[in-house]
Amino acid sequence: MLVVQAKHKGMCFGVRDALDMMRGLENPDRVTVHGELVHNPVVQTELMRRGFHQQKEVGRTLNIPTPEVLITAHGVSDTRKRELLESGYTVHDTTCPLVRRAHKACLHYHNRGYYIVLVGRKGHVEVEGLAGDLRNYEIVSRLDELQPYPHQKIAMVNQTTTRPDELQKFHHRLLKLNPGKDVQLVDTTCKPTKDRQEALDDLLARVQALVVVGGPNSNNTHQLGLRAAERDLPWWRVTTAGDLRPEWFDGVRIVGLTAGTSTTDETLADVARALRRLATPRMTA
Predict the structure, then answer these.
(1) Which CATH fold topology does 2-10+192-283 show?
(2) What mean pLDDT value characterizes the chain?
(3) pTM over 0.90
(4) What contacts 24+ positions apart, CB below 8 Å, involve 200-206?
(5) What is the predicted pLDDT for the residue at 219?
(6) pLDDT digits (tens, 9 = 90+) for 153-200
(7) Quick one: which of 21, 176, 194, 220 is 20 to 30 A from 86 by CA?
(8) pLDDT tens figures, 69-78
(9) Which DSSP symbol is given to 119?
(10) What is the CATH T-level fold of the domain 98-189, as seen in this structure?
(11) Where are the domains of the chain?
């Protein structure tokens, strides 16, 4: 079995910066992580080992047991951050700059009278944060949720891990349902997501199956797997090398390997080594 890795895969700079900030804090026992720092169980285990407190991402109240709070790479609304500061917490903000860009885009159009159609996974912490400062908006996760809106000015903004081709489908349907209106598409898909999707498209043309490394709550990891499913290629998501099963690869001569943007370098390397142990050494790439 030949193992071929995607050109672009794994941890993005936003996640790397968040981890660096977390690891640099001197008193973890004084810090509550406001949700999952990143959607990766390996990182969650590290946080627990270091002594950080953790709190669920959605449906949470300001009942934080420590004097310091760490905002995750997925960000929160400006309203939520202001509440934390006004309540006296010391805030460490690891929000990805590209998520901040999406926040600014939402507010830019919202403050100019546009109705915001936000494309993303309902309930996802990034999407909830993007919507947290808006009044006139709707979150859509499926094409059939779009509708003719009573607003003349509509701006479509998206979760940063939205697939570019999916965003175009949402935009085209929105235009079809709302002819003659001022409809703006604000593509806020981040470059790391686009790079990994393009690299995956190239990889899928060369393999018979795909392994995607990432956490079960990671949207971009999920989107990578769906891309393989759309091409009728078998794929498996694993969190660590221990999740791999030899029987998956019966009859597979070439397997692809990629990873979501919250996957650590160490985890990805472990999975690659484990796959190579399943492969014929002289045929491994």
Answers:
(1) Cobalt-precorrin-4 Transmethylase; domain 1 (3.40.1010)
(2) 91
(3) no
(4) 200/6, 200/224, 200/227, 200/228, 200/256, 200/258, 201/227, 202/6, 202/7, 203/4, 203/5, 203/6, 203/7, 203/256, 203/258, 204/228, 204/231, 204/233, 204/256, 206/4, 206/254, 206/256
(5) 78
(6) 999 999 999 999 999 999 999 999 999 999 999 999 999 989 999 999
(7) 21
(8) 999 989 999 9
(9) E
(10) Cobalt-precorrin-4 Transmethylase; domain 1 (3.40.1010)
(11) 2-10+192-283, 13-96, 98-189
Q: What is the pLDDT of residues 93-114, one digit of tens each?
A: 999 999 999 999 999 999 999 9
Q: How far apart are CA 248 and CA 232, in angstroms?
A: 15
**Total length of the chain:** 285
**Cβ atoms of 133 and 79 closer than 8 Å:** yes
> Strands 31-34 and 68-71, how do they pair?
parallel
In the predicted structure, residue 285 carries a pLDDT above the cut 60: no
* DSSP H stretches of helix in the chain: 13-24, 41-50, 78-86, 97-110, 125-131, 164-177, 191-204, 219-230, 265-278
Q: Do domains 2-10+192-283 and 13-96 have the same CATH topology?
A: no
Phi-psi category of residue 67: left, alpha or beta, with phi > 0 → left and psi -120 to 50 → alpha:
alpha
What would be the CATH architecture of the domain defined by 13-96?
3-Layer(aba) Sandwich (3.40)
pLDDT confidence of 57, banded at 50, 70, 90? Answer: low
Q: Which distant-in-sequence residues (6+ apart) come within 8 Å of 3 by Cβ?
A: 255, 257, 272, 275, 276, 279, 284, 285
